[in-house]
Amino acid sequence: MPRVAAGRFGGKVAVVTAGGASIGAATAARFAREGALDSWNRVLEVCLTSTFLGIKLSAPLLSRFGGGAIVNTASISGLGGDAGMASYNAAKAGVINLTRAAAVEYATLGIRVNCVCPGAIDTRATELLAGPRADELRRAHAEAHPLGRLGRADEVAGAVLFLASDEASFITGTALVVDGGVTAKTGLPDMLRFAEGR
């Protein structure tokens, strides 16, 4: 498949096709944005294809033992869009709908399939994404959550444990949001601040 690179150079936008080898590859490399398609594919492989394979490989084993539960990790980024995160948004939306499809397909085998959709969780990923601005990103995420803080990994683990337990025996095909209230907001300003007399 021909490699396509796109990027900005000297204030202009350039698109280079047939960049898989020789002159095309050298030209694409000179234009500081080659690999956009590679990056897209990598995110889908890591986030979505791996989930598909996990379901595919574990379902027969669970079925052999009379059923069980699968809990996938999605994200609130699969429920809405984020600037600069198109591949992640697409992959996590795929995980959510893959979860639904698998829940329907494997229900007759006694296998429940659900997923969790975390908001911003305080993990090492913050440093990987923001580097020296990690603390700034943490503050921005905390302010975006109505609960006023980032989530903890153990709080997501608690939701996973619930979905995997017999307490959730009649729950399948659901996306359990664990986001400190982020998706409960419309994004509109606080109208109480603008109400008359306030």
Instruction: Describe the main β-sheet briefly.
Output: 3 strands, parallel
How many β strands by DSSP? Answer: 5
Task: For the largest sheet, list the strands in their spatial order.
Answer: 3-4-5
Helix-residue proportion: 40-55%
Q: Compute the CA-based radius of gyration.
A: 21 Å
Provide an overview of this structure:
With 198 residues, the protein is α/β, with parallel strands linked by helices. It has 2 domains: 1-33, no CATH class; 35-193, NAD(P)-binding Rossmann-like Domain (Rossmann fold, 3-Layer(aba) Sandwich), CATH 3.40.50.720. The protein is 44% helix and 14% strand. The protein has helices at 22-30, 36-64, 86-106, 125-130, 134-144, 153-164; strands spanning 5-9, 12-16, 68-73, 111-118, 175-178. A 3-stranded parallel sheet has the order 3-4-5, with helices on both faces. It has a two-stranded antiparallel ribbon with strand order 1-2. Helix 2 (36-64) runs parallel beside helix 3. The model is unreliable at 1-6 and 18-22 (pLDDT under 50).
SSE arrangement:
Layout: E1 5-9, E2 12-16, H1 22-30, H2 36-64, E3 68-73, H3 86-106, E4 111-118, H4 125-130, H5 134-144, H6 153-164, E5 175-178
Parallel strand pairs: 3-4, 4-5
Antiparallel strand pairs: 1-2
Protein traits:
single chain; 198 residues; alpha/beta; Rossmann fold; 3-stranded parallel beta sheet; two-stranded antiparallel ribbon; 44% helix
